[in-house]
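thread: overnight batch results

M.L. [08:02]
morning all. the overnight job finished for the chain we discussed friday. pasting input first so we're all looking at the same thing
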Amino acid sequence: MNLWNETKSIPISRQMIWEAYKKVRANKGSAGIDNVSMEEFDANRSKYLYKLWNRMASGSYFPPPVKEVEIPKKDGKVRKLGIPTISDRVGQMVVKMFIEPRLEKIFRKNSYGYRPNKNAHQALAFVRENCWKTDWVIDLDIKGFFDNIDHAKLMLAVEKHIPENWVRLYIQRWLEMPVLTKSGKLIQKQGKGTPQGGVISPLLANLFLHYAFDKWLEKTDGAANFARYADDVIVHCKSEVHAERTLNAIRLRMGTVGLELHPEKTKIVYCRDYRRKGKYATVKFDFLGYSFQPRTAKSKKTGKLFLGYDCAISISSRKRLADKLGEIEVEKLSFKSIVGIAQYLNPMIKGWVNYYGRFRGYELSKVFQLLRRRLVRWARKRYKRYKTSLNRAYRWLERVRAQYPYLFYHWQVGYS
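M.L. [08:03]
and the structure it wrote out:
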């Protein structure tokens, strides 16, 4: 790499390529349409990075099509992701790292998705506190958001903040990247859409919604508060009338920027609790894998139970974790001892606890009870002495837990 000549027409240095590559490598991810895996890329790193730098720095880089991958959604449908090649992900990361600091300066504090030092837990905490302060929520669902981002409108926002022609050139090319479907058909963009799965797509999406929604709502409705995580948006309103008026205004606004609210999934929700006793049909909404709804809580001062409004892991998220355990088929794992199973499952369990255990984490216990049953089944298949007695197998697991309380991650943090 030290032989690279940096006298190029576009100021992309080899250091920028190298820093971008390190970030892409840390994020891992699968191969694009060229079927070059991260292992293969690493083995020929110098060749791939030099070729990318040479083309990007001379303005002759054209991104290859993205590979379409289908991910199942909780409603039974599929979400289509567009996976760029590893080289292209590095190229996108170069531009993202170059423009992100200046865009961060304009973004609103209550936009949490895909931003440095921002995360889903902060968004959930913000929504939680606002549900206690205000009685009404608008749960917004933008229909096919990533597929419908208007290129011309997005480029106006890009041009407002990014004077560098080479950056605009590459952003335009990435927006126009065709998609190679699973059936081998090449689909050209028709002036809208940015693939979910691209490195730069979330940043461009945030820039689009900064003007299409965040800034507009602040300007037109100072009484409404909101939290946004990419295209997941929760708006807090003072009254039912305020919520209805705001929702109508948002619906019209989305139409003017080429977007549409999902008619079934967008709803107005009443935050019912011991103080707010109005009779309304819709008192629950989901946000970032958690359900917000009336829940029984215990007073810290008196110890008495009362009806609060709070969030915990949603039923659909819990089902997804249960389905994951079903896919793994714990009872069929071929480890010689339960220690091997714990080492295999702990990274996944830790991820679940760290994300879904933040608010009312004990709701996760239902998932771990399912794991407990599967571990008992594994023991009955593995050890002859437990084949005929279910109770004996459960007692064995309790002894293991008493003897090795840190074996499974959820045991370490107190889940049954």
